[in-house]
């Protein structure tokens, strides 16, 4: 558990999970920057999340834009302690033969490229923080891919692999450092869900039970809870949130 307020960046902040995560960190007393690609949407999302949530606009698929984002954040805070990456998307097809190239290009950009850019730009912050945390949301489809969801599952698998490599970087820099080992204080993790569920979905489909779905509020609680657990326990873990 950290001793004071944290600075947390929530990417993909315009969607319901981003709002829930940003709100949870703000209510816990932390400083939150929530990031989206559309100015009107991210401002509305930040207003819904709370007064202490700062909205920023960035195209996370462009490395230079993410570097500019980091510079803007660093202008008002010493460093970033946490990045909760919620950018993704879904594309499906009937089977292997009809997986469109357009779907792969879209998911590679949203699920993989954005994560690569964000993790590279903020890696030093998270490695330097006494409680650095990086988290992404993946899918149960990675462990049990179907032909129809091949593109989606492959993109999520690539994002998971990158995140686990970030975890290895933290380990090598800290507890696994052969020259100057230190206690592990930074961690990268993967949250695994079947699908996310929010209040709007329940209102639209009151007859449905949504078996195995993870409520965005539960995801938010899990994200905040990362800072209450030892980094050595968390680093490199796939944390199943599916019920």
TrEMBL record:
Keyword RNA-binding carried by entry: no
InterPro entries linked to this entry: KR_dom (IPR057326), NAD(P)-bd_dom_sf (IPR036291), SDR_DHRS6-like (IPR051122), SDR_fam (IPR002347)
Classification via Pfam families: adh_short (PF00106)
Residue ranges occupied by any Ketoreductase domain in the UniProt entry: 6-174
Database matches in SUPFAM superfamilies: NAD(P)-binding Rossmann-fold domains
Annotated Gene3D superfamilies: NAD(P)-binding Rossmann-like Domain
UniProt entry tagged with the keyword Oxidoreductase: yes
Domain of life: Bacteria
Keywords: Oxidoreductase
Family assignment from sequence similarity: Belongs to the short-chain dehydrogenases/reductases (SDR) family.
Descriptive protein name: SDR family oxidoreductase
Origin species: Arthrobacter gyeryongensis
């Amino acid at each position: 558990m950290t001793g004071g307020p944290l600075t947390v960046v929530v990417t993909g902040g315009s969607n319901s999970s981003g709002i829930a995560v940003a709100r949870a960190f703000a209510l816990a007393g932390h400083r939150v920057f929530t990031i989206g690609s559309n100015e009107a949407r991210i401002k509305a999302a930040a207003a819904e999340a709370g007064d202490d949530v700062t909205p920023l606009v960035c195209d996370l698929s462009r490395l230079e834009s993410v570097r500019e984002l980091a510079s803007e954040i660093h202008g008002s805070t010493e460093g970033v302690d946490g990045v909760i990456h919620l950018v993704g998307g879904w594309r499906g097809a009937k089977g292997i033969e009809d997986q469109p190239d357009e779907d792969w290009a879209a998911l590679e950009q949203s699920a993989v490229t954005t994560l690569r850019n964000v993790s590279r730009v903020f890696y030093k912050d998270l490695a330097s923080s006494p409680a650095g945390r990086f988290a992404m949301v993946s899918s149960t489809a990675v462990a049990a891919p179907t032909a129809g969801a091949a593109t989606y599952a492959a993109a999520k698998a690539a994002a998971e692999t990158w995140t686990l490599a970030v975890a290895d970087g933290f380990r090598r820099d800290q507890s696994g450092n052969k020259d100057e080992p230190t206690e592990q204080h930074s961690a990268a993790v993967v949250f695994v869900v079947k699908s996310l569920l929010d209040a709007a979905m329940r209102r639209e489909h009151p007859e449905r039970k949504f078996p195995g779905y993870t409520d965005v509020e539960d995801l938010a609680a899990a994200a905040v809870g990362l800072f209450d657990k030892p980094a050595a326990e968390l680093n490199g873990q796939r944390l199943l949130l599916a019920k």
